[in-house]
Every structure is written in structure tokens, then in C-alpha cells.
């Protein structure tokens, strides 16, 4: 069991549900606040952003590439336009505190980790894209926070190496396929079971990029202790992640159904419920009760 901001996470506890805002705010803090509101209304435990130091993560050549977008004609204009400043994150931090929801971020470089640490997040998320960056993995341990590791674009040897670098303490691993949106046939939800058997001492969750809700509910049924999905105001909005995201009403249904399934699971002990006893006396001619 691991605690994230006072919430126990692991087998036997309710799934920790993360609404990933990511870059679906499109650089607009008001959209970000609306997404936070939607996550709160749905009953999510946390929202997550992404943070990059643009000049560190991308080369000059990559930033100079032509790419028409709302912020300008180059890829650099796009990447810079999607980043929030310190003051904007401070405003979002205050907003989340007022709304009573935790927030944290995927940090794509060491400077981004230092940047987000100023807001004392309850944990850090390591994105699938940075899974093989040993130095960044080690740097995340600097602040002693729990870590959530996504495993998209990785096979078992890559995952094993990342866990060896990070160590198993205060670590949660999420099964993931990094296609946006992901084909149902490539979700491989049984990978959750494989990871649980391979790493019994590590809580295993699920980060999904599929269209729809049923497969994420299935992941929770398979024992995923964390469920992470992208949230959007409208899947038709401009942005690379919107199509693989869930709209507010859908997120409400997903959280409701996960909590319903958790309640229905019970403890596995076969017994006669008090509510059944009147039925026994009414319907059975012979009873041992």
C-alpha cells in the first residue's frame, strides 16, 4: 500500500482515479479550471498536468519545424504555447486546493521536476515517453515523493530496467499502450494481471488512451489500483490528445461505475445475507438455517 496525499493506494483499497488534463487545456487557464471542475464533479481523486522545459526536451531543429497551430507557424510556437507559467500554476494550485482535489504532473526533464516541486505535489507521474531516461528516473527520487510510472512503448525488459533504476519503494506501475486513441485489440488488459504477478510488491494500475469507458471499467475489475484517463471538455476540440479523452459526462459515468463494481465485489466469503432470510422461509420447504 502507498499513500498519495493521505489516500491509500493498492490492493484492497478503492481505485485512485486520475483525470489527466495534460495539454487538453490548450494553453488556456480558464479551460484548465473547467476541466478541474469536471474532474471534481465526477468524483476523481486527482488531476494531472504535463510540464516540460521546452529548450531542454526539444532540439532547435525540432522547434523550428513548420507546424501551423493557434500560437504560430512553428512547432516551437505550439510547444511554448501549451506551457503554463509559474504564476499560472500558482493559480491552478490555489484553485485545486479550493476545490479539494489533488494535482500533480508528468515532468519531462529535471528542470520541470524542480519547477513542479515548488508546489509540493503529493506524487509525480513518469510518462511512458521518459521511461528509458535513467537520469530523469533517478532525479525524480530527489524529493522523496511517491512515483507513478507508465509503461507504454515498453516490453518487460524495459519495464524491469526502469523499476531497477527507480527501486520498488513508493512506486506504482501503470499498464499502458501509447497510441492516441488506442485500438481495443492493443489494450492488452491482461497485461495488468501479468504485471501484478511479476511485481507482487508493487501496486499495479492502468493508464488508458482508448475511446469509450467499458475497457477502463474492465481494468478496474481486473484489479487496477489506479485508473488514469485523459479528460476533455469536447473530444472535437483542437488538440492532439482530445480524441483519446473522455468528456465530463463520460467521466462521471466511469467513476460511478468503478465505485459500483468495487462495492459489488464484496469480500469473497460465501454467506447468507440477512436480506435473504425472509426469502428462505418463504420459498424453501427444507432449510438448514
What does this structure look like?
With 289 residues, this protein is an alpha/beta fold. It has an 8-stranded parallel beta sheet. The protein has a two-stranded antiparallel sheet with strand order 1-2. The chain has a two-stranded antiparallel ribbon with strand order 5-6. The longest helix is centred in the C-terminal third of the chain and has 18 residues, at 248-265. It has a single domain (2-283), classed as Alpha-Beta Barrel (TIM Barrel), CATH 3.20.20.70. It is built from 12 helices and 12 strands.
Question: Keywords, please?
Answer:
289 residues, alpha/beta, TIM Barrel, 8-stranded parallel sheet, 12 helices, 39% helix, globular
Tell me, briefly, the overall form.
Answer: globular
Rg computed from alpha carbons, rounded to a whole number of angstroms:
21 Å
Mean pLDDT: 97
* Main sheet makeup: 8 strands, parallel
Runs in which pLDDT lies below 50 for 5 or more consecutive residues are none
Intertermini distance: 39 Å
Annotated CATH architecture: Alpha-Beta Barrel
Strand order of the largest sheet: 7-4-3-12-11-10-9-8
Q: For this structure, what is the CATH homologous superfamily?
A: Aldolase class I
Structure at a glance:
The chain has 289 residues and is an alpha/beta fold. The chain has 12 helices and 12 strands.
Describe how the helices and strands are arranged.
Layout: E1 2-4, E2 7-9, E3 16-22, H1 29-42, E4 46-51, H2 54-57, H3 60-64, E5 66-69, E6 72-74, H4 75-81, H5 86-99, E7 102-107, H6 110-117, E8 124-126, H7 134-140, E9 147-150, H8 156-166, E10 171-176, H9 190-198, E11 204-208, H10 214-221, E12 226-230, H11 248-265, H12 277-283
Parallel strand pairs: 3-4, 3-12, 4-7, 8-9, 9-10, 10-11, 11-12
Antiparallel strand pairs: 1-2, 5-6
Helix pairs in contact: 1-5, 1-11, 10-11
Amino acid at each position: 500500500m502507498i499513500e498519495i496525499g493521505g489516500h491509500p493506494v493498492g490492493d484492497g483499497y478503492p481505485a485512485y482515479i486520475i483525470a489527466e488534463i495534460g495539454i487538453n487545456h490548450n494553453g488556456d487557464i480558464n479551460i484548465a479550471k473547467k476541466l478541474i471542475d469536471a474532474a471534481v464533479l465526477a468524483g476523481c481523486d486527482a488531476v494531472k498536468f504535463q510540464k516540460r522545459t521546452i529548450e531542454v526536451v526539444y532540439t532547435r531543429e525540432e522547434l523550428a519545424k513548420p507546424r501551423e497551430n493557434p500560437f504560430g507557424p512553428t512547432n516551437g510556437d505550439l510547444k511554448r504555447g501549451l506551457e503554463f507559467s509559474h504564476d499560472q500554476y500558482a493559480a491552478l494550485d490555489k484553485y485545486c486546493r479550493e476545490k479539494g482535489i489533488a494535482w500533480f504532473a508528468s515532468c519531462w526533464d529535471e528542470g520541470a521536476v524542480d519547477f513542479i516541486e515548488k508546489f509540493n505535489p503529493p506524487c509525480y507521474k513518469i510518462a511512458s515517453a521518459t521511461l528509458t531516461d535513467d537520469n530523469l528516473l533517478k532525479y525524480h527520487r530527489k524529493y522523496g515523493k511517491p512515483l507513478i510510472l507508465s509503461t507504454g512503448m515498453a516490453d518487460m525488459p524495459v519495464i524491469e530496467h526502469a523499476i531497477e533504476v527507480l527501486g520498488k519503494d513508493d512506486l506504482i506501475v501503470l499498464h499502458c499502450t501509447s497510441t492516441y486513441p488506442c485500438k481495443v485489440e492493443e489494450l492488452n488488459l491482461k497485461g495488468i494481471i501479468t504485471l501484478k504477478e511479476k511485481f507482487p510488491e508493487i501496486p499495479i494500475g492502468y493508464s488508458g488512451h482508448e475511446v469509450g469507458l467499458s475497457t477502463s471499467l474492465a481494468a478496474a475489475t481486473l484489479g487496477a489500483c489506479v485508473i488514469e484517463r485523459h479528460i476533455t471538455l469536447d473530444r472535437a476540440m483542437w488538440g492532439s490528445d482530445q480524441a483519446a479523452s473522455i468528456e465530463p459526462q463520460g467521466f462521471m459515468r466511469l467513476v460511478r461505475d468503478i465505485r459500483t463494481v468495487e462495492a459489488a465485489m464484496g469480500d469473497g466469503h460465501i454467506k447468507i445475507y440477512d436480506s435473504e432470510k425472509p426469502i428462505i422461509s418463504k420459498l424453501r420447504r427444507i432449510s438448514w438455517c
